[in-house]
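Practice problem: predict the structure.
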Amino acid sequence: MGAINKRRERELVAAGERALEEDGNKILKTKFKHYTVEKDGVRRNIITRTSTDRNIGFMHDGNDWLTLGDPDIDDILIVAYREARDPSEILVYPPIPRTALQPRFDQARAAYIADGHEGRRVWVGLDRRTTGTVWDTASGIVAGIEPLARYPLNPEPESQAEANSRERVPPTQPSLSMVVELDEQERRSLTERYARDLDVDPRRLLVEVRLTVFR
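Answer:
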C-alpha cells in the first residue's frame, strides 16, 4: 500500500486500545501493536492490524507467514476507517482468532501466485469484493461482524503550513523533470496497490514515477 501516515496510524492504534479497555480487558503492551490482554481470567496474546483503505496485509517469506504464522499470537484486532481513505469514523472489530484468519491469507496468496504475482506481501479486503479480479479472493474478513466500538472523528483541518504553501507558490514552469527508476519490488508494490484501487488487471498498468523540480 502507500506510505503510512504515522499520525493516523497512532490514532487507529489508540482506538483499538481504548476499545479493548472499554470491553473490560486488562491490557499489557508488550511492543508496538502487540498486547497481552486478560478478561474474566482468560489471557490472550493479541496483535493489531490497522487499515485506512479497508484492506489488511501480512508478509510471507516463501516458507511461512512472518507474523500470521506465529503460534504465540492468539488473536488479530482489526481497526479501520469505516470507508476507505475516509477518516470520519474508526471501527474496531472484535478480535479474530489467528488460526481462523490464516486460511484466508493462504487462499489469497495461492490466487496471487496463480495470477503471476510474487506472493510475498498479501492483502485481503475487509469487505466482500466482486470485481472479477484476483483481489476478490478471500475478501470479506469482517463481513457480517458487528464492530466492537465506533469512534467518530472530526474532519482534519488544513494545517497552516499547507495553507501558506498553497497560497504562496505561484504557477511556474518546471526546471527539471525526470522519470525515477524503480526497483522490481517497488514497481510491483505500486502496480498491485493501484490495480486493487482501480479494480483492473495489474498487467494492464504501466507504473512510472516522475520527479519534477520547479524554480
